[in-house]
Amino acid sequence: MKKSSVMKDLLGAVALFLMCAAAGWGIFKFHCWRGHNPFTQLEFKLPDRPEIRVIDYDEAKRLVNHVDILVLDARASLFYESGHLPGAISLPRGTVETDPSGVVEWLRGKNKKAFLVYCSDAQCEDSKRVALLLNQQGLTPLLIYTGGWAEWNGRR
């Protein structure tokens, strides 16, 4: 096979990729323009429950070292290992989804009065999902720090 033939094939593949990417981008923008952003349909809405409360940075800072509060990091373990709130325990969303009743039984054994759950940032929904799963198993009260690790790390 000649070098020029391989180069033509490679350029053809790159051109095809760029055309597909441009077409995909155009379709996405068209749907967004019409008000049908597919990503907004993925947003998780937390049901209104008095035993689950959203807190801000100031309240999280006040509560994080409290002896009766257990801080739960809902991010994947890899992110937990790279940094986490003081005293936090790694409790990835997948772990809770796999065995919510077992997780709640384990958490009840910690003898804490409240549970503060957080994840990456305000766009991350893992903390909301974890809190809801734990609450559905009867664990209360739950506090969700929506600013998450990004806000905490940025303000310390």
Q: How many helices in DSSP terms?
A: 7
Instruction: Output the helix-strand order.
Output: HEHEHEHHEHEH
Rounded radius of gyration (Å)? 22 Å
- Rounded to the nearest angstrom, the distance between the terminal CA atoms is 60 Å
Largest sheet: 5 strands, parallel
Give the helix/strand class.
alpha/beta
- CATH fold category name of the largest domain: Oxidized Rhodanese, domain 1
Work out the number of β strands: 5
CATH architecture title of the largest domain: 3-Layer(aba) Sandwich
- Pick out the low-confidence regions: 28-42
Identify the strand order in the major beta sheet: 1-5-4-2-3
Into which percent range does the helicity of residues fall?
A: 40-55%
Question: How many independent structural domains?
Answer: 2
Q: Please report which band the strand proportion falls in: under 5%, 5-15%, 15-25%, 25-35%, 35-45% or over 45%.
A: 5-15%
CATH class of the largest domain: Alpha Beta
Q: What's the rounded overall pLDDT mean? A: 83
- Large-scale geometry: elongated
In CATH terms, the superfamily of the largest domain is: Rhodanese-like domain
What can you tell me about this protein's structure?
The chain is α/β, with parallel strands linked by helices. The protein has 2 domains: 3-41; 45-155, Rhodanese-like domain (Oxidized Rhodanese, domain 1), CATH 3.40.250. Helices cover 50% and strands 13% of the residues. The protein is built from 7 helices and 5 strands; from the N terminus they run αβαβαβααβαβα. Strands 1-5-4-2-3 form a 5-stranded parallel β-sheet. The radius of gyration is 22 Å and the shape is elongated. The N and C termini lie far apart (60 Å). Mean pLDDT is 83; it is low at 28-42.
